[in-house]
C-alpha cells in the first residue's frame, strides 16, 4: 500500500471529486453513525462548504491509495476566540483503517499550526465507543467533554407541541439577520449567560458578547450567506431580553438547519421560557422554510435541563459524541520519536 496525501481545494473541486468524498462519507458513517439518516450528495457538499461561525477558513487534505480516495482531514482555525486551537476532523475508509492513515492525516493536518499560532488540537463529534475514541486515546488525546447530538425531523413532528404562548409579563420578539437597536444591548448581555452551560474539561471559550460583537457576528453571517434567525423573550417590565435561541441555515444546505445557543438568564429560569422560545423558533422556521426537514443541535451530555427542553420540543437524542484535545507539542514529539506509528 502506497498512501499519498494531497491538499484538496474545495473551490476547484469537480463533481467527481465531491462524489468520491460523498462515497467515503457514506462508507464511514455506516460504521460510525449507523443511527443517522443517509446523507444525500447535495447536503454532504453543502456541509463541506458550510464553514461554521467564528472560523477563519479551512484546509483539507486527502489520502489516496493507488489513486483511490481513502481518507480526509479537515482543519479549521477559529478566530476571535479559541485562537490557540485547531479543530481537526479526520475520516478513514472503514476497510482501510488500522494502517496508519488516520495518524498520517493528523500529522500532515497539524503541520504549520505552530506558525499559525495554534498549540491545541481539538477533535469533535467523535462517536463514543467507536473507532475514533480508541484512536484518539492511543494518540494521547484527552476526552474533555461529552456531547449529545439531538435532531428534530420536521415531518415526524407534532406541530401542536409548539403552540406555547409566553407567560404573562413576557413578549416574544423575532428577527432575521440584525437585532433591533433597542434590544441589542440586553440581547448581548443575555447571550453571555451561555457560560452557565456545563463545559466539562473543555478549554473552549465562548465569545464575550457586546453590542459590537453581536454586530460583528451578524455581519459575518451575512457575508457568508447564512440565514441567522433569533427568537427572544423580552421581560416587559424591565424591557430586557431574558431568553433567546439562535438558529442558522447555510446557503449550500437547503434542507438542514442548526439550532445554536439557547439561553434563559438566571432569575427567569423554571418558567418554561426555554421551551417557549425554541417552540417559537420552530413555528417560525416551518412557516417560512418548509423545505427544511431536519434541525440539528448539540448539547453537553450533563445539561439535563436543555436535553429535556429539546425532547419536549420534539428532538430525539441520537448519540453521544466526544470532544478530545491534545497539546500540539505532545503530538509533535510522537511524530519525532515514532511513537505514533508503533
Ligand atoms: C479515527 C480514524 C480516523 C482512525 O483512522 P486509522 O487510519 O484507522 O488510524 P491509524 O491506523 O492511524 O490508528 C493508529 C492507532 O490508533 C489506535 N486505534 C485506531 N483505531 C482504533 C480502534 N478502533 N480501537 C482501538 N484503537 C484504535 C491503534 O493503536 C492504531 O494502531 P494499530 O492499528 O497499530 O494498533 C478512523 O477510525 C475514522 O475515520 N473514524 C471515524 C471518524 C472519527 O472518529 N475521527 C476522529 C478524528 S477527528
Automatic annotation (TrEMBL):
Keyword Cell membrane: no
Keyword tags: Acyltransferase, Transferase
Name of the protein in question: GNAT family N-acetyltransferase
InterPro entries on file: Acyl_CoA_acyltransferase, Bact_Acetyltransf, GNAT_dom
GO MF annotation: an example: acyltransferase activity, transferring groups other than amino-acyl groups
Residues covered by the N-acetyltransferase domain: 8-190
